[in-house]
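Why should sequence recovery work at all? Because a backbone constrains its sequence more than one might expect. Tight turns favour small or flexible residues, buried strands favour hydrophobic ones, and helices have their own preferences. The token representation captures these environments compactly. In the example below, the structure is given first.
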């Protein structure tokens, strides 16, 4: 329910500062606990006197606990910051409402408990003045003018109250996002202008689900949000980002179409060093991108076809070595490029290729592998290209779904009566 005029003018905002101070102390205390835990538990037991699988299991658990302390600190400090900013913003907007009311009263307009303004200047006149005014030919116009201005005051006050309500909703969104779900939020955003923005707008038109965001701009920087050392930086200026999706089901066919367009500029940088591995990357780009992809997933051999294009400048370098990913790459390009990609999957093995045409100058090369935690698939691929001023790039991607591949081989072995092969393959995957 939206805030009313009475809600806004009678609200006591002081408790927000008190709550902010308590969350600030809580965050600092979590930071102290993390330091004590690492020094007196995690590192103390890793002094070389204890070896073996039990130590490895303990250190893995200890790393998780330390990261939870760090995440708790990040979340608490973010909430403290949001509450402090909330007090500042709501106080400013509440004062704007009260100042409007004071100005209206100074001009002989009374504002009731609902925020409605009424002109009371005529009530201050003496009986003789009222009688004389009522016989004045301009009296009806004066009354109409007073009523019009009263409505203008009422509308201005309502607009100011609405601004408070919108700020209140923004604060609610920010605090909800900072709290996260299923554990402490290591990436909690403490900037109200970023954390409180509404969700991307989504509409459905003729079967299409369209999501649009922007224009928007901002930046963020974080350091050591989890066990080990990690830092991230991001700055962006988005002119607009639109994504449209539609599923086309006709009989046995199951076709999905996705279109995406983006215009703006971005710069990102990050590095990480922890028990999970090491990584570092930096990238910047400006310009426009577009992509359309069609997938057919109903048959035994799913297919996809994608076309994309880019106009602008981009540069980047990256390297990563973790338990689930290893990659190295670099690129620098300015101009226009367009390409097509396609592929298929059979028995859990997917093979795809990319071909691009470039008009501009630059070069690109990357190679790596990655495990997708959501699907369980392993991806192996690479891409290389050069242009000066014309050229292009070629790329290949191979995906392996261990679960699907294992089941396919198992079914095939079962069909020919090779039970031992089936068991071996099933155990392997």
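From this structural description, the recovered sequence reads:
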């Amino acid at each position: 329910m939206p805030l009313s005029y009475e809600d806004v003018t009678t609200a006591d905002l002081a408790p927000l500062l008190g709550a902010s101070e308590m969350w600030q102390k809580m965050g600092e205390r979590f930071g102290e606990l993390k330091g004590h835990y690492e020094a007196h538990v995690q590192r103390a037991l890793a002094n070389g006197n204890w070896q073996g699988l039990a130590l490895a299991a303990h250190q893995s658990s200890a790393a998780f606990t330390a990261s939870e302390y760090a995440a708790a600190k990040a979340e608490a400090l973010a909430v403290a910051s949001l509450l402090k900013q909330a007090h500042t913003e709501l106080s400013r907007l509440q004062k704007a409402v009260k100042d409007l009311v004071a100005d209206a009263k100074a001009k002989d307009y009374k504002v009731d408990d609902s925020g409605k303004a009424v002109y009371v200047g005529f009530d201050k006149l003496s009986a003789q003045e009222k009688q004389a005014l009522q016989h004045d030919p301009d009296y009806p116009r004066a009354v109409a003018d007073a009523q019009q201005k009263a409505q203008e005051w009422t509308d201005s006050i309502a607009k100011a109250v609405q601004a408070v309500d919108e700020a209140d909703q923004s604060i609610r969104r920010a605090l909800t996002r900072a709290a996260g779900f299923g554990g402490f939020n290591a990436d909690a955003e403490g900037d109200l202008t970023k954390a409180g923005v509404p969700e991307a707008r989504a509409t459905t038109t003729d079967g299409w689900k369209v999501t649009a965001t922007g224009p928007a701009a901002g930046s963020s920087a974080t350091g050591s949000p989890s066990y080990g050392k990690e830092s991230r930086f991001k700055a962006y200026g988005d002119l607009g980002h639109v994504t449209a999706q539609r599923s086309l089901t006709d009989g046995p066919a199951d076709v999905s179409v996705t279109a995406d367009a983006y215009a703006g500029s971005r710069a990102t940088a990050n590095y990480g060093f922890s028990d999970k591995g090491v990584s570092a990357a930096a990238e910047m780009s400006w310009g426009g991108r577009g992509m359309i992809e069609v997938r057919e997933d109903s048959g035994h051999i799913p297919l996809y076809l994608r076309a994309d294009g880019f106009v602008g400048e981009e540069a980047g370098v990256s390297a990563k070595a973790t338990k689930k990913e290893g990659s190295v790459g670099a690129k620098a390009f300015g101009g226009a490029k367009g390409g097509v990609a396609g592929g298929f999957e059979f028995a859990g093995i997917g093979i795809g290729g990319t071909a691009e045409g470039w008009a501009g100058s630059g070069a690109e090369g990357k190679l790596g592998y990655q495990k997708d935690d959501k699907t369980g698939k392993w991806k192996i691929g690479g891409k290389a290209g050069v242009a000066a001023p014309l050229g292009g790039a070629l790329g290949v991607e191979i995906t392996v779904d261990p679960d699907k591949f294992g089941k396919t081989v198992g079914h095939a072995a079962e069909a020919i009566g090779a039970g031992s092969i089936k068991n071996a393959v099933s155990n392997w995957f």
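A few observations help interpret the result. The first strand starts at residue 109 and ends at 111.
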